[in-house]
Amino acid sequence: MTNRHNQPTSLRNFRHASLLVVEDNKDHWFLIKMALEQSLPEVEPMWAANREEALQYLNSCLLNGTDLPKLILLDLYLPKREDGWELLQEIKDQSSSFKQVPVVVLSYSNAQEDITESYFHGSTSYVTKPADAQAWMEYTQKLRTYWWETVTLPSDRYMT
Amino acid sequence: MTNRHNQPTSLRNFRHASLLVVEDNKDHWFLIKMALEQSLPEVEPMWAANREEALQYLNSCLLNGTDLPKLILLDLYLPKREDGWELLQEIKDQSSSFKQVPVVVLSYSNAQEDITESYFHGSTSYVTKPADAQAWMEYTQKLRTYWWETVTLPSDRYMT
């Protein structure tokens, strides 16, 4: 999408772009990585296997002066859903330095409680996990279309 | 998108579905309404011209026991950007009863400050306003594909 001011939104979104996947299942990470490499080759996929690794990675971006990920994909059950919600709250806390990064929660769970609680904790959207490699590919293509080609993602170049 | 548990996500998303547009420019509201009626005929578009009307509408949903909107489209400059951010913060406040509703900020502004501050205040995504009726139609189609056909939206049937 272009706007009346200047360049297409997508040019900004792709600049220094990485995406953090928080996923405790290594096989799922491989599936997601493969789908992302096909649908979003311009964006570097990063992996954290748990809450601690995710926070460590985000803090290292701030310390090293590298860009924060443009988006976070967060598996809710890490392996307990409380682990996912705890991380979500830490990222979205008022005093957090990562608060601006959109977090998409992924889960096989279709329970209304899991969905609505995730939104309450600051999830930007909730997606039930695709079932196989082909469905992952379709999903990451939609991720590209919405987040990278339609929306303007936040940038590290402006910090409050 | 379907999942291993049951029905397609979209069936839930379309049930009792409305969408609240907060827009102080009546001509823009007509454009948005027209595009939504084409792309999302199953979803009732509601209009609030300012912060007060938006809060009044959201509170009336709670009082009357009708469903909250599935999504809010919020024009940032209402007419000042501070008005948009104030409403965004009120919706996303820890104690808010509407906190779970995703809010997509819309604006002609492409200023990095407007974009990143909106994410800090809890915007779920930021979209630069389409320029004409055709572009609005393309945008609302993307809105349908992502929010109604890919994501699982929160439901009023589960309240914390």
Automatic annotation (TrEMBL), chains A, B:
<dbReference type="InterPro" id="IPR011006">
    <property type="entry name" value="CheY-like_superfamily"/>
</dbReference>
<dbReference type="Pfam" id="PF00072">
    <property type="entry name" value="Response_reg"/>
</dbReference>
<dbReference type="InterPro" id="IPR052893">
    <property type="entry name" value="TCS_response_regulator"/>
</dbReference>
<protein>
    <submittedName>
        <fullName>Response regulator</fullName>
    </submittedName>
</protein>
<feature type="domain" description="Response regulatory">
    <location>
        <begin position="18"/>
        <end position="144"/>
    </location>
</feature>
<dbReference type="InterPro" id="IPR001789">
    <property type="entry name" value="Sig_transdc_resp-reg_receiver"/>
</dbReference>
<keyword id="KW-0597">Phosphoprotein</keyword>
<feature type="modified residue" description="4-aspartylphosphate">
    <location>
        <position position="75"/>
    </location>
</feature>
